[in-house]
Design a protein that fits this description.
The protein is mainly α. It is about 70% helix and about 0% strand. It is built from 10 helices and no strands. The protein starts with a helix and ends in an 18-residue tail after the last helix. The relative contact order is 0.16.
Length: about 260
Amino acid sequence: MNTTVKKRIDEIKSQGYNIDFGDVFNQTIENYKKIAMYGGLVLFLFFVVFILGLSGIFSAIFGTDEALKILKSEDLKPENLDLYGLLIISLISIAIGTLVSPFIAGLFKMAHNADKDEEFHVSTMFHYYKSPYFQEIVIATFLLSVLDSLINGALNYVEIPFLGAVISVIISLFTFLTIPLIIFGNLKAINAIESSVVVVAKQPFILLALLVVGIIAVCLGIFGCCIGILFTIPFIYAMVFVIYKYIIGFPEKKEEVVPTNFESL
């Protein structure tokens, strides 16, 4: 149990907090410098294996030629899908996002290690595929993905996709601290989602501005033959880590203790 985080969340509820845009941005750059190359290489290898594996599954089920036709089909566009098609696409997206989320959470672990000037390896990216982190990360990701998919699916079906996109941005903004609160604050999935909403609600505009700058920085990687984006993706994770550190903070301790129970607020 992390009583320090519980006390900090209670303080934020009653008193709020201050956050300096420039300080967070500068700390993010310093952290990103330490994880950019290694994080990018690991992401590159992961996506190559993931795409090859996904292609192999499609080819095994439908055959190579048929799989290519399906993936290139105009019918896969949301506006061309019926309710059943939207449901299938949503379920596939939720399943992939949920299973991959502990791996992506490894970027936060990498940023944390870099912040403490500790070594990190390929195994760092798989750190959260173990109890008790895996269960809570998967539950949180699943719940948020289902909520987002239901809203987007319904609005796409009634042909109001723009509103769905706006709501998705709002959900992402208010819940972006969920995973850090699970892996660093030892909170359960529901508590982490609720706490993220509480924290973001106190300073939504400055946090949105920081994330927009982070996303722009990530998008600059497209100019590096598109592959470059894999090396800029760690920037947004470094930024989220720094935001968590800046707002919630870490208790001073010499070594990480893997919790057996998660804190309930």
